[in-house]
Amino acid sequence: MIMGLLHHDVTLLNFGDAYPWQRELSGFADEWIELTDITEAHLFCSHEALTEIGHRLSGRTSRGITYIGSGNYHYVTYLLLSKINRPFSLVLFDNHTDAKLTDGMSGLLSCGSWVAEAAARFPHLRQVLIVGVCAEQNHSPSESLGKTVLWPSVGEPQKLLSVIPTEDVYISIDKDVLDRSFAVTNWDHGNMHLRELLAALQTLVRQKNVLGIDVCGELPVPPAEVWRYTDQLRLNEQANLAILQSVLCA
To answer: φ, ψ for residue 204 (rounded to 5)?
Structure first.
C-alpha cells in the first residue's frame, strides 16, 4: 500500500467568516463552501441542518484537507468520516474527547458528541486515538464502545503508530490542543507545542495512508471586532499554514 496523504486539495468551510481574514491561507483554497446561511448549526446541529451541510459537502471534487472554522462546528468531521467505506482509524488531536452523549437533545449532533456518535454508527471506524486530551477528561468514554484510546501527549511520534490498528487513518485537529502561545480558540487549551503536533503529523503522513485531514479551532470574532483581535487571528493563520505545509511536504 502506498503511504501518504491521498489528496492534497484544500477546502475552506465558511460557517462564521473565519477565513476571509486569513488571506494567505485562503490563497491555498481549491474550494470554498458557503455555509453561513444555515441555521440550527452552532454548537448543536439539527438533523435538517446536518443534511444540508452534507449536501453541500457532497459537491466537493476531492477530499484532502478541510478547514472547518471554529471548534463549535467540529461535528462536521462526523460527516467527513461517514463517506469512508473501508476500515480506518481516527487520529484526533484535541484537548477534549468530544464523546459525550447529548442528553435530552434527541436528534441533535454537537461539537461535544460527534466522536461518540461516529464510534457507535460507523462500522468501518475501528479505533479513535485522541492525542493531547486534558487531564480532566482523561477517561475512556463508554459512549465510544471501547474504540477510544487516550494519549495525553505526543511524546515519541513513532509510538503513536504502535497503537493504530489500521493502515488507513483520518486525522482531525482542533487547535485547542495547542498551548495558547501557538493558537487562540474560544475553548480551554492544552499545552502541546506546535512543533510536537507537526512532528506527529509528518510521521503519520509518511507511514500511514491518510484518507483526509481536517482542522478547526478558529476564534469566532464579529466583523466589527476584527481589529481588536488582529494578533490572535494572525497567530491562528500561522498555525494553519504550518499544519498545511507540514502535511503537504511530508
So the answer is: -65, -45
User: How many alpha carbons lie under 13 Å from residue 165 in its C-beta half-sphere?
Assistant: 11
Angle at 46 between CA 41 and CA 52, to 5 degrees: 75
Alpha-carbon gap, residue 50 to 54, rounded angstroms: 6
Domain boundaries, the chain: 4-248
Q: Which fold has domain 4-248?
A: Arginase; Chain A (3.40.800)
Please provide the size of the chain in residues. Answer: 250
Closest C-alpha among 208, 220, 139 to residue 176: 220
Angle at 16 between CA 45 and CA 89, to 5 degrees: 55
Assess contact for 198 and 243: CB atoms under 8 A.
Answer: yes
Q: Which helix (H) or strand (E) holds 120?
A: helix 114-121
Digit-coded pLDDT (tens) for 109-168:
888 889 999 999 999 999 999 999 875 554 444 444 578 889 888 888 888 898 999 999
User: What's residue 137's pLDDT?
Assistant: 54
Helix (H) or strand (E) holding 71: none
* E strand map for the chain: 4-5, 10-14, 31-34, 44-45, 65-70, 88-93, 109-110, 125-131, 148-151, 168-174, 209-218
Give the position of cell 473565519.
18
pLDDT of residue 104: 46
Below-50 pLDDT ranges, the chain: 103-104, 138-144
